[in-house]
Amino acid sequence: MILCGFAIIVGFLTTRQIEIQFNDSVRRTAQYLAERADVRYSDDGFSASCGKLGDLSSGEGAKVAVYDLTNRQQMCVFGSSLERALVPHEGSYPRDEGGYRVEARQVQIHPIGTGILLYARPLSATKATAAKVRVFLALGVLGGTALALAAGLLVARRAMAPVQELTATAREIARTRDPSRHLPMPEADDEVAELARTLDGMLEALDAAQSETEAMLERQREFVADASHELRTPLTSVLANLELLEETLEGDERDAAASALRSSRRMRRLVADLLLLARADAGRVVPHHPTDLAQILFDVAAELEPLAARDGHELSVDVGPPGAAAVVSGARDELHRLALNLIENALRHTPPGTHVHAALGADDEGHVVLTVQDDGPGIPPELRARLFERFVRGAGDGGGKGGGSGLGLSIVRAVAVSHGGDVAVDDAPGGGARFTVRLPALPMPQHAPVA
Q1: Could you list the residue ranges that cross the membrane (predicted)?
Q2: CB under 8 Å to 349, separation ≥6 — which residues?
Q3: Which residues are within 8 A (CB) of 24 and not within 5 positions of it... i.e. 6 or more apart?
């Protein structure tokens, strides 16, 4: 737009200057011819002599004519005698007529009086020059635009290179969530460099805040783990005393002791759950030994069989063909808790008459696969995304089946992850929910005696 505006202004001024110079040239030439014209009649009054007027006016396609105003007749014509531009007209001069610029001057005609000299020069030369100027300006605009575009792209690319580096580094920091990385500093000391320094300072502050937060969380994890561990001893003492009181007391006192004993047992289980999660958060690893999941699954089924029978559930266990390996390296108590929570969760959240099936198998990647599925109503879609979070409770929690703390499935995931495996949930083939735990299998020739 700037180049177009510049070209328009330059074109207008240049064209006008060409016209002014052309008009001045025509005017000066006409004046020059009028001053040097020697126009006279012969003695007989019929023939006219214009002296050297033809020689003086030749060139540039110009035309000259002299008219006798007294006799109203044409005396001398050089160039053409039929051009309308060389015919006197009423009105003012100079004027444009028939493609010519015409100037008129009064001359003396000897011996009879005065006449008029008309000098005309074609406008085509001026128009051609103006057209060339416009073409040159148009080419200049196009060339200048192309050069400006190329230069602008080059400058913009060099100017945006530091910004692109900052953007790439910021994306990498966002991907890795590592605020300890530093941003590249541009060489030029400009606004981009100031922005880079500001962002780098912000990252340093975030890194320091993250380190402080992680240290605080680590202290909290250690505290919870230590506190949960320390609570086990007094709880064991309380349970022992309450069991003794329940056996020795009678009547209402015995019922009160039994109620306190049930609450204490529930508290002991909750403390055990918190201790397991706290150990996982703090990174405290319980010693692992070769452990047979089939034996653990049988023990859990035997432990939960009375609960299943009481609520009208059908519980079945399939550990595979005899001699099938289901040995993993792990902590027996934690793996027992994993299987117990899965089966108990299925019993608690399904209506009476539901079939709960637990099975052991293996996959092609060297994993022992524990599957617990039911044919109940399944898991609501809005709950499935948060199912393994802590303190998330399903519809059966808090109901007539005793409720739960909302830590069961989070413990399942923590145990699976700490043993190098994972846990997933999907829909069972016949309806209901299916939980699948995959744990790395321990090769039979390499493991020690199985616990």
Answers
A1: 135-156
A2: 376, 394, 395, 396, 397
A3: none
Bridge partners for 370 per DSSP: 360, 437
Q: Are 288 and 330 in contact (CB under 8 A)?
A: yes
- For residue 48, give both structure tokens: 């006219």
Beta pairing, strands 95-97 & 367-374: unpaired
d(CA 120, CA 116): 13
Give the structural domain span for 215: 191-282
Tokens read off for 56: 């003086």
Residues 48-101 pLDDT 10s: 667 667 666 666 778 888 888 777 777 777 775 545 556 677 667 888 888 888
- The token pair that represents 292 in the structure block: 């047979």
CB contact at 8 A, 347 and 315? yes
> Side chain identity at 408, as an amino acid letter?
G
User: From CA 48, how far away is CA 45, in angstroms rounded?
Assistant: 8
- DSSP string covering 428-449: -TTSSEEEEEEEEBPPTTT--S
Task: Please state the length of the chain.
Answer: 451
CATH code, domain with 58: 3.30.450
DSSP state, 85? G
Residue 450 has pLDDT above 70, yes or no: no
pLDDT, tens digit (0-9, with 9 covering 90-100), for 364-397: 888 899 999 998 888 888 888 888 887 777 655 4
Run of H or E residues at 374? strand 367-374
Q: Where are the alpha helices (DSSP H) in 177-250?
A: 191-248
Short-list 48, 35, 31, CA closest to 112: 48
Q: Are residues 105 and 75 in the same domain?
A: yes
- Asked whether residue 121 falls in the same domain as residue 70, the answer is yes
